[in-house]
Design brief:
The chain is mainly beta and 310 residues long. Helix content is 1%, strand content 49%. The strands form 7 sheets. The protein has a 9-stranded antiparallel sheet with strand order 10-11-12-13-27-23-22-17-20, with no helix packed on it. Strands 16-25-24-21-18-19 form a 6-stranded antiparallel sheet, with no helix packed on it. Strand 12 and strand 13 form a beta hairpin. The protein is globular.
């Protein structure tokens, strides 16, 4: 039997008041391969026989998005990461994209996985990473834990790359709503080169924008929070039913990506990624959002995906 490209497949199940919540979490990249509530898909599922299309569902650590040219500086010394995005010449999506995670514990409704980032090209640190996927009544809660096991303080940022879906609604008909005041502009390498107010621009999602008419691969900041400090991005269909990604105060940035290269059988079509991030692209160079851990210090942060009803 041929092994799955994403390794072990961990099926989670929770009997919620509005129907069964179920998910499949993968060994490789601690990814979400399936997530649904009462048969209503909250993410784009993909076959067990395939690698995650467009990085679907994977964890991004110790940086999300891109590092320009794979180059950054540490204490005055140039660091050269492996270039993993040849098209733009960058280091992309961290160092665990194709790494297996070890299972720490598993129940019917949740799983805790861990993986270690060891020193390598352009990265002289050891970080222990842990991811807890837990089903709740309306979806899933994901908690990240990072511990520095190096002899010196170490930088890091964390993100995730789910493609959201609202049941059977075509992606083109989804309305994306995000109450964010600032968007990052990028250069030809997809690396941030500034930021702008969304007012009067195509980046403005505050009143909602139809995904089929949007052209976004855009990071946002200055996102309005609720009373608990939580930020929300919502996708809903014409009937009002939809999906919402929420992120706690540890994740002040989000990337919205309307990919028109997402595999749809024998063709390609639109899919909408909503990526919670603790820092924007190129944080190892800009320092924006970058966090530093002292030896043996631990950081935690949480985000999740829920079904919303009209």
């Amino acid at each position: 039997m041929t092994a799955a490209p994403t390794g072990g497949q961990y099926r989670l199940h929770h009997a919620g008041p509005d129907g069964v919540v179920e998910a499949v979490v993968t060994e490789v990249a601690a990814g979400i391969r399936e997530l649904r509530v009462a048969g209503f898909d909250l993410t784009e599922p993909f076959p067990v026989t395939e690698q995650p299309p467009g990085a679907n569902g994977i964890v991004l650590v110790p940086w999300p998005n891109r590092v320009a040219g794979g180059v950054w500086e540490l204490d005055g010394k140039r660091q050269q990461l492996d270039v993993s995005e040849p098209k733009y010449g960058n280091a992309s999506h961290g160092l665990l994209r194709f790494a297996p995670y070890r299972v720490v514990s598993q129940t019917e409704t949740g799983i805790v996985q861990e993986a270690t980032i060891h020193p390598q090209h352009g990265w002289p640190f050891t970080l222990e990473t842990r991811v807890h996927h837990e089903l709740v009544d309306d979806g899933i809660r994901v908690t990240h834990e990072i511990t520095n096991r190096s002899g010196a303080r170490a930088p890091f940022a964390v993100g995730a790359h789910p493609y959201l879906r609202a049941g059977d609604t075509p992606a083109e008909d989804l309305v994306v709503t995000l109450d964010a005041a600032t968007a990052f502009t990028v250069d030809e390498q997809k690396v941030p080169n500034g930021s702008v107010s969304v007012e009067g621009t195509s980046f403005d999602l505050r009143q909602g924008q139809r995904a089929g008419a949007a052209d976004l691969d855009t990071a946002y900041s200055d996102i309005t929070t609720d009373a608990d400090g939580v930020r929300h991005t919502t996708l809903h269909g014409p009937e009002g039913d939809g999906v919402q990604l929420w992120q706690d105060a540890s994740f002040p940035y989000v990337q919205v990506f309307t990919s028109r290269e997402y595999p749809r059988g024998d063709a390609k079509g639109l899919a909408v990624a909503v990526e919670p991030m603790t820092a924007p692209a190129n944080a190892l160079n800009s320092g924006e959002g970058l966090r530093w851990l002292e030896p043996d210090e631990t950081w935690t942060g949480t985000w999740g995906i829920r079904r919303v009803w009209s």
